[in-house]
Amino acid sequence: MSSDEVLTQAEIESLLASVGKGKPAEAPRDVPTAPAASSPPPPVKKSREKIIPYDFKRPERVGKEQMRSLQTLHEGFSRNFAAGLSAMLRCMVEVKLTSVDQLTYSEFVFSLDNPTCFNLIRAEPLEGHFILDINPTILYPMIDRLLGGGREPTPITRRPLSEIERRLVGRITSLFLEELKRAWENVLPLELSVVRVESNPQLVQIVPPNEVIVLVSFELALGEVRGMANLCIPYNAIEPIANKLSANSWASYGKRQVSPDATERIGRALRTSTVQLVVQLARTTITTQDLIGLRVGDIITTKKDIHTPLLVRVEGIPKFLARPGIFKGHKAICIEDVISDPAQAVGE
């Protein structure tokens, strides 16, 4: 650039002022303008939205509401199963729901040990079959407890179950299916039964390898020994009842009438319970001086007539009216009436 093309200080200040106002400055007519430098591109704003990868080989066919309902359903099941299994083994057993996921059937099968305890379960009226897999790590210690073993951990055995061991495991799986049936009865009454038991999971194919299944995993703890139990539910089996697993209908299914069997079961448990029964002979008031001066043989007079029935309380609640008497040389009462409304008898 020659000395004739150099801008003066006044021209430079005029250009800077025009750039600040947002208007292009007019260059002098006798002086050619210098080419404007290219402005840097504006910075790209980073989106705050989280990008979630989607695998087309593993489509999520079960909705989030259905997954939450299945999780809530099996959380209650795990508590009841733990109580029943503890009573069967006569020791404390912890059962914890670890996850409820959906994956392909091939991924589930190849993630299992071989050999294992692979139970094929029929779940009528649903189509298809469920699968219950119990890991040998926790299964053999439970068999040892059923045979009278102690709490000491037993060596882990990697072999198929014998015929006798399968019969013992049948007690555990029967308890599992019984509690599972109770957990599902709010959604759909199921008739669950074991079709067959396999040791190699790859020999059983209930659905195509790429079919989506719901895997419900439980962690069982027997003392210091821990192991997994997996319940496999094919999606095509629960697809017809997917609307019953939604959150809105779940609350309505939870509110149901008590069945006669449940009433009878609770009644049998209460029949052996011990309750406190108190017979109120009479009620009166005396002074503190008279109370201090009471001695053996003193007589306390009341306004209660001898023909008036006595009030009988059960656990503090008025339940019966009776009259006093003697039975086989012992003081006794004879029930004459049942109090239908305890509130009316409070003032007696």
From TrEMBL:
CDD domains: FliM. GO terms for molecular function: cytoskeletal motor activity. It is a peripheral membrane protein. Keywords: Bacterial flagellum, Cell membrane, Cell projection, Chemotaxis, Cilium, Flagellar rotation, Flagellum, Membrane. GO terms for biological process: bacterial-type flagellum-dependent swarming motility; positive chemotaxis. One of its GO terms (cellular component) is plasma membrane. Residues 269-339 form the Flagellar motor switch protein FliN-like C-terminal domain. SUPFAM superfamilies: CheC-like, Surface presentation of antigens (SPOA). FliM is one of three proteins (FliG, FliN, FliM) that forms the rotor-mounted switch complex (C ring), located at the base of the basal body. This complex interacts with the CheY and CheZ chemotaxis proteins, in addition to contacting components of the motor that determine the direction of flagellar rotation. Belongs to the FliM family. This is Flagellar motor switch protein FliM. It comes from Thermogutta terrifontis.
